[in-house]
């Protein structure tokens, strides 16, 4: 028997087994020559063809074509089916059991739609589990446990009850996720190019796509470095600017502060606090430092 877990999150659909993560695929869909393309191939053309691309269908699961926010002519459910089917084709060999790890925000009707899609794809689903519960495998007696996660369009905190086993007590969210965060930082970096080189990446679709392609690596480097050289190519010319960590990340302070305040609003008086961050958030430079400002938090 071979078992897999599939984490349904449009910031990255993660497939894992007992040995570790097998693949991560962004929740993007695009129309190319009349066919639906999903995952990394769709993400890589999203800035060049924004009206034929969408990354909202997983959050809008069960909605109509208008919910995807683009002119694709497909409903959110149809696009989710296309991605799930393509993903399953890559990992299905020998798999007999699948655990679907789902966002806490999914309503019962959305869970029903997801199960129906899995059945259409012949995925042997054995159970659903809330992502916050899946992450809360270690007990923290006498302390409040909070799980913090983000998708492309939403950031949530989940309060975990620890009475013998982990249970979701409540979930609260911000209507801002990793997509808006990336847009804010990308605009700040574009401004550096405009000021230093009189070159605006957002005027040229290829340069804009390149900026977004390189953004994850730049953010990862800013975890370690105080100063980076950033480069973009356009029309056989290379543009290079110096970027200071504090100057780039200053635009993220509002988002970081909102996450910290959301946690603070739902603290239990007189208890120590344990904050569990998803890997999607833990890699954002400066966020852990911001959350460390919470009193008695670990």
What does the average pLDDT come to?
94
- Helix- and strand-based class? alpha+beta
Radius of gyration equals 20 Å
Tally of helical runs: 10
What's the helix-strand series?
Answer: EEEEEHEHEHEHEEEHHEEHHEHH
Distance between the termini: 38 Å
Proportion of beta-strand residues: 25-35%
Strand tally? 14
Q: Estimate the helix proportion, in percent.
A: 25-40%
Biggest sheet, strands in spatial order?
Answer: 3-2-1-7-8
Biggest β-sheet description:
5 strands, mixed
Give the overall shape. globular
- Any low-confidence stretches, pLDDT <50, length ≥5? none
Task: Summarize the model shown.
By secondary structure, the chain is of the alpha+beta class. The chain has helices at residues 40-43, 76-91, 108-120, 131-135, 178-197, 205-222, 245-249, 253-265, 279-282, 287-291, and strands spanning 3-7, 13-17, 20-25, 29-32, 35-38, 53-54, 97-102, 125-130, 143-150, 155-163, 165-174, 227-234, 237-244, 272-277.
């Amino acid at each position: 028997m071979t078992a897999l877990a599939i984490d349904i999150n449009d910031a990255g659909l993660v497939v894992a087994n007992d040995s570790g993560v097998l693949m991560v695929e962004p929740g993007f869909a695009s129309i190319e020559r009349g066919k639906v393309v999903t995952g990394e191939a769709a993400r890589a053309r999203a800035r060049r063809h924004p009206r034929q691309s969408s990354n909202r269908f997983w959050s809008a699961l069960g909605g109509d074509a208008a919910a995807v926010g683009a002119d694709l002519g497909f409903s959110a459910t149809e696009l989710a089916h296309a991605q799930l089917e393509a993903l399953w084709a890559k990992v299905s060999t020998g798999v007999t059991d699948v655990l679907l790890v789902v966002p806490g925000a999914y309503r019962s009707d959305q869970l029903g739609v997801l199960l129906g899609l899995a059945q259409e794809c012949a995925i042997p689903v054995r159970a659903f589990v809330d992502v916050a519960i899946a992450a809360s495998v270690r007990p923290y007696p006498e302390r409040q446990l909070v799980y913090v996660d983000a998708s492309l369009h939403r950031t949530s905190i989940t309060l975990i009850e620890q009475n013998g086993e982990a249970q979701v007590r409540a979930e609260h969210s911000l209507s801002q996720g990793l997509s808006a965060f990336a847009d804010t930082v990308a605009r700040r970096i574009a401004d550096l190019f405009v000021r230093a080189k009189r070159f605006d990446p957002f005027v040229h679709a290829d340069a804009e796509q390149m900026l977004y392609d390189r953004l994850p690596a730049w953010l990862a480097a800013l975890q370690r470095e105080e100063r980076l050289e950033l480069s973009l190519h356009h029309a056989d010319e290379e543009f290079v600017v110096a970027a200071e960590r504090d100057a780039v990340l200053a635009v993220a302070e509002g988002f970081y502060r909102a996450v910290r305040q959301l946690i603070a609003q739902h603290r239990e008086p007189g208890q120590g606090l344990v904050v569990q961050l998803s890997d999607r958030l833990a890699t954002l430079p400066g966020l852990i430092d911001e959350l460390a400002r919470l009193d008695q938090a670990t």
